[in-house]
Amino acid sequence: MATSNWSILDTKYAKQVNSLIAPDFTGVSSLIARQAILKGYCPKVSVHSSPTADHVARNYGFSNFLSFLRFFEYDLADSDFCLPSDKGEPNRIVIKFVDSIEHIIETQDANKGSFQGQSAPEKPAGRFPELYGEHVLTNTVSRHMDRVNREIEKTSFYTNARSFSWNAKDLESEGSKVQDSKVQNSKVQNSKVQDSKVQDSKVQDSKVQDSKVQDSKIQDSKVQVEQLEGSIYLSMLSKATSSNTLVPFEFINHPVVNLVVITADITIRDLQAVYSDQKRKYLDLHARFPWLDTSCMMTLFLILVDTDAVEQFQALSGLQDYCVSVLGEDSIGCTFSFEKASNSDAGLPLEKIHADSLDFAAAAKLRPDSMLSVEIAKKVAKPIHSAVDTIVYKKMVPFLRRKIQKWHVEYVVPRKSLTGRLLGAGRLWGSNSSHRSFFSFGYGKEKSESSESGAGDADSTLYNAQQGYYPSASPFVFLRRLGDWYFMMRDYKNAYTVYEMLKKQYLADRAYGYLSSLQEFMIVSLLLGASCKVNPLEKATDGKRVSGITAKIVSDVIAPFLDSSFYSYLSRCSLKTYTIRLTLVTAELFLVLGQSVAYCHERLFSRYALSSEACFIESQKLFKRLVDSKLVDNVCTGVLMQRLSYIYYCNDKPGVSGSEEDNRLQRKSYYTEFNPEKLTFTPTSHFGASRSRKSILWMLLCAKTLDPVINRTQVTLVLWYIENELRQTFHLGPESTVAWPYRKGSLFVALKASLE
């Protein structure tokens, strides 16, 4: 079985990370988890497919063409998302295909999650929809854990773990705990038959060989179990960051490209009807939601051409000319066979799509047989891969760059210049402004009162306090969209600069939803920008030192913004899922930064940068806050506790060499003879740096929270890990009845008894 249907764990980048940072049972490396975070913040491409295009997808076993394209988006994820190119820009962009905007809005209305205003006028902010439903995160993690448990129970590692009844003498670390016992049994048997015939000796040698083969299988299954365990946390992190919910205060989930999929046999009249109908729907949506601006999207036609129909090749050029000359939109062609039966080539396995990145109801519709991987002939997969690359690198990325440059000149440059600041102050405190000061002498009072009551022109650029949004024509909306597009293009420095321009305005207008989201992305921009500058997979160079995140930045910027957004999300906006995303992503990014610093040479960083231990402490604080806040259920809490255990486990990784003084004390002199009674000095440079006991304690709390009755397989593996660590690190076993884990009535003993 491949790795739990999670493509990020199967990429080349993940293998490079695992070669540097060895995988552990407690969790997956934070560098791999960062890929899941960036995947959640990637640009979205909405797909509107015609009935004929959906019919082509159904020929290959999919419900519509959107589900067909979702199997190709992971082809772009086989590299480090943060790795820059020669021009300083990301050389790989990953995208996500989503439903059309009108379908997303209809789904939000059906789930009663659509944007609605507060009925009480005294509340300044409106009610916004959550990222996902109330129990979606719990169901996502629980169902994925059930799938993982079923796969783990099939492995030989789990079978041996159960058969040896938690005897760590028989189960060593690194997945080969049975090896010593089997080799010892083989030696005993060899001693008994050493005087036997040569034929019996050959049989015994074959048994030893079989034992080695079995041990190798157990080792391989242990690696598989570790990856399966790591996918549980990745599924939670992916679901917490990925959502299609459209809200007015952030544009990460707003699609940047509108992909219209048609077939080449469509007529010009039908093409015009499809285009006009879509424009009409967008106008209706803008009338209902003044904050929604679909004019910022790029409309792109994807024309499918059947290789078995020669007349469609001739129609392709005519359709493309009509799209450019009449509709004013760009288009690309994709040529492959529409009938699956005609494909005789060998099947091409595609990247696996993770069901937890979608709703489970939608995942069931993708494939009726609930298969999350499919094989398609190479002559079909190759043109689709080429079309996706064209959409991303030849159409979407140039479009984003043009828009970013245009908005930067129109909105950022005037505000950064001295003249622009003076004019901005005049607009802010002038007679037509809603703000009142000592120098306004009462002018603008009527305007302010009308703005606070929610009245006024619908096309106004002022903040609507009653409904809680800025209209789409407001310059603050364009600035926020510009910052989010910088963020999606992974230009975190410019994104932070744009976000900083909006903070005072949001605070003055009491737009707490906007302010909370703004501060969240300012934090994430700082942490992602710092972590992307440090690549532990590359060799250290003697170039310019990286300043990184300093203690002053944490205390003056990150901590106040985090506390403010945490409070505003929960108390002012009642957005629980956004609070979970804020805390979880920030905690994980601190772990990313700490692990990157730990595995890089110290000369790469300035002396003011946070140490790896300080980053680990900040990450631990946030994970503990999320656990104590009771925002998630027991299953998710258990997963968070396991992640906390992994942070403590990483505290002294990698092991460092002793100091020069320790090396001098341990160095043997040439003239000194060996004296067994001579006093020796223990190296103290790394003494007390590990946090093994705290790691074990959090794993013990994880087993208690998961409940052995509900999640027997997970608790079984957690207790095996605890007993293995106790024997390997502290030399404690079941015979150590005085030690705290094995005392009568202890939690560890009670959990073991519940599994019997």
From TrEMBL:
Pfam families the record matches: TRAPPC-Trs85 (PF12739)
GO cellular component assignments: TRAPPIII protein complex
Sequence ranges of Polar residues compositional bias: 181-193
Comp. bias regions, Basic and acidic residues: 194-215
Transmembrane segments: none
Region (Disordered): 175-215
InterPro entries linked: TRAPP_III_complex_Trs85
Record protein name field: Uncharacterized protein
Organism: Dekkera bruxellensis (Brettanomyces custersii)
